[in-house]
Design goal:
Radius of gyration: 16 Å
Distance between the termini: 35 Å
Shape: globular
Number of domains: 1
Helix content: 25-40%
CATH superfamily: NagB/RpiA/CoA transferase-like
Oligomer: single chain
Order of helices and strands: HHHEHEEHEEEEEHEEEE
CATH class: Alpha Beta
CATH topology: Rossmann fold
Strand content: 15-25%
Largest sheet: 7 strands, mixed
Number of strands: 12
Structural class: alpha/beta
Length: 199
């Protein structure tokens, strides 16, 4: 009997969920993203956090733009990632003006402009982290895009911030294989519910 490797299984799940996500109309994605954003800002852990790690969405992802603007409007410190092509890891920068401090980077994703942003000295300041991903389980397993960027980033943090995923309901799956380096999220926020992954 042939058993599929973890990598191959992940790739099958990734392909299936991305295809489903692409089928959502722009209007539907906008509507679902607005509902998710409302749930995110209502979370007590978000409201209590002063330092927030976000990301700028691309393609058919949950549209994080409105949420990121809300973080700044709420007076919180916002850190956004930039891919460091030398180390193949994410560096984090403080951003307080989206219009002047971001430019299209790798894969066309808006990233901090190094010359206009201050880099975080320590990742341990982050209290609330919103993580992107392709698929999630109700127990917190996260399937990214395959680069391992966030798993490597989170491995550098000594204390663990609240790890939250924003995802459309169709991105929540029953099960997926995990590797030792995979970092789980504590909460999955969809347009329908907030899933406490510790339950």
């Amino acid at each position: 009997m042939v058993t599929m490797t973890t990598k191959a299984t992940k790739q099958i799940i990734r392909k299936a969920i991305l295809a489903k996500r692409e089928q959502l109309s722009i209007e539907k994605r906008f509507e679902l993203s607005a509902a998710i954003t409302k749930r995110l800002v209502d979370m007590p852990t978000y409201q209590q956090a002063n330092v927030v790690l976000g990301y700028m969405s691309f393609g058919a992802e949950f549209d994080s733009g409105t949420w990121v603007k809300q973080v700044l409007a709420d007076g919180k410190l916002l850190a956004l990632p930039k891919v460091n092509r030398q180390t193949n890891q994410l560096d984090l920068y403080w951003v307080n003006d989206l219009a002047s401090q971001l430019a299209a980077g790798l894969w066309g994703i808006p990233e901090p402009i190094i010359e206009r942003c201050e880099r975080l000295n320590t990742l341990n300041e982050v209290e609330f982290a919103l993580l992107p991903g392709v698929a999630f389980t109700r127990s917190g397993a996260r399937l990214g895009y395959g680069g391992g960027f966030y798993d490597k980033l989170l491995a550098q943090i000594e204390h663990r911030p609240t790890l939250v995923a924003a995802a459309f309901g169709l991105q929540v799956v029953e099960d997926m294989p995990q590797e030792a380096t995979d970092v789980k999220v504590e909460w999955v926020v969809t347009e329908q519910e907030i899933v406490d992954c510790s339950v």
